[in-house]
Write a sequence for this structure.
């Protein structure tokens, strides 16, 4: 074997490659390495950016509605008080939310379950409700369900008991008619009924209506304090919506106190057969059908600080929304 030719190396001849081929292969490897490093760097940066965004971005929360649209009442029937009067919707009062409080902070309303409900605007008829001065104190009311127990019928009676009850019922009917005639006479100084300020649930009315009447009777002579009856059903003074809320709760038609503005959307639109609530952003009252006529339950127009909320006079419903419980 002779000596190698000039211009070649022993290693290049050993691998069968020239030095130019080796240089080209090395350059190609270097280029591939650079591409790989660049690709890894871009991907890592994207991952880091995604992680950074994930850490700094909080999950979205569902928006909560803070106001409800007031619903206009349908035209009242001719048998309902104020049928010829307007029942146009008042201002919407269901929107503002605030912190819990009692009636010592006027305008604040909190549900019995602790949930904050709409704040009531100042009652435009407060001056007609004989607002109680700070020196006036009244015992606290029972719960609405306790107040309603006076209207709950006993269990199924025997035949003899039925006959006795029929006789008692006739006597009660006669007494109820007599009392109704008496209570239609109002106390001087306002529109409140006389006597003890309560009315007797007439025979033949639905049990739920009798319980509403019993609840209304339980606080009928309580003082008026704006915001009263909103921190809890159990209170020693009640404003207009606190009074109506208490009575409705006694009938199982309300779970927590509501403001007059939120009562604009209570139940269904229009007047009812037995109970109709009239409400706007600042004031509310209700009518109850006693069979012989309608009786108004209203803080406005009473005859004194401790006068009854029951009033036989029909008032203008202008600017109020009529609402009723379906079926009632």
């Amino acid at each position: 074997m002779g000596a190698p030719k000039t211009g070649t190396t022993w290693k290049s001849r050993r691998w069968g490659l020239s030095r130019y081929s080796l240089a080209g292969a090395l350059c190609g490897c270097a280029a591939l390495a650079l591409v790989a490093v660049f690709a890894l760097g871009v991907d890592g940066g994207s991952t880091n950016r995604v992680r950074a965004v994930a850490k700094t971005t909080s999950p979205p929360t569902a928006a909560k509605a803070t106001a409800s649209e007031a619903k206009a009442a349908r035209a009242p029937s001719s048998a309902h008080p104020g049928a010829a009067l307007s029942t146009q919707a008042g201002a919407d009062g269901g929107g503002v939310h605030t912190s819990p409080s009692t009636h010592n902070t006027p305008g604040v309303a909190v549900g019995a379950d602790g949930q904050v409900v709409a704040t009531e605007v100042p009652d435009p008829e407060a001056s007609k409700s004989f607002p109680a001065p700070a020196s006036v104190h009244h015992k606290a009311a029972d719960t609405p369900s306790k107040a309603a127990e006076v209207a709950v019928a006993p269990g199924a009676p025997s035949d003899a008991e039925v006959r006795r009850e029929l006789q008692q019922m006739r006597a009660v009917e006669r007494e109820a008619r007599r009392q109704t005639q008496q209570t239609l006479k109002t106390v001087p100084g306002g529109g409140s009924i006389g006597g003890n300020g309560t009315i007797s649930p007439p025979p033949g009315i639905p049990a739920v209506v009798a319980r509403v009447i019993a609840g209304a009777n339980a606080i009928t002579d309580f003082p008026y304090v704006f915001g009263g009856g909103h921190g809890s059903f159990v209170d020693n003074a009640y404003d207009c919506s606190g009074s109506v809320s208490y009575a409705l709760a006694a009938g199982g038609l309300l779970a927590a106190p509501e403001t007059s503005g939120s009562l604009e959307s209570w139940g269904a639109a229009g007047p009812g057969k037995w109970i109709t609530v009239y409400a706007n952003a600042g004031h509310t009252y209700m009518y109850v059908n006693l069979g012989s006529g309608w009786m108004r339950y209203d803080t406005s127009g009473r005859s004194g600080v401790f006068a009854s909320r029951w009033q036989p006079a029909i008032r203008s419903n202008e600017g109020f929304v009529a609402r009723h419980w379906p079926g009632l």
Remarks:
- Residues 1-15, 42-78, 84-106 have pLDDT under 50 and may be disordered.
- The chain is about 30% helix and 5% strand.
- Strands lie at 268-269, 275-279, 284-289, 294-297, 310-311, 321-324.
- The longest helix spans residues 19-56.
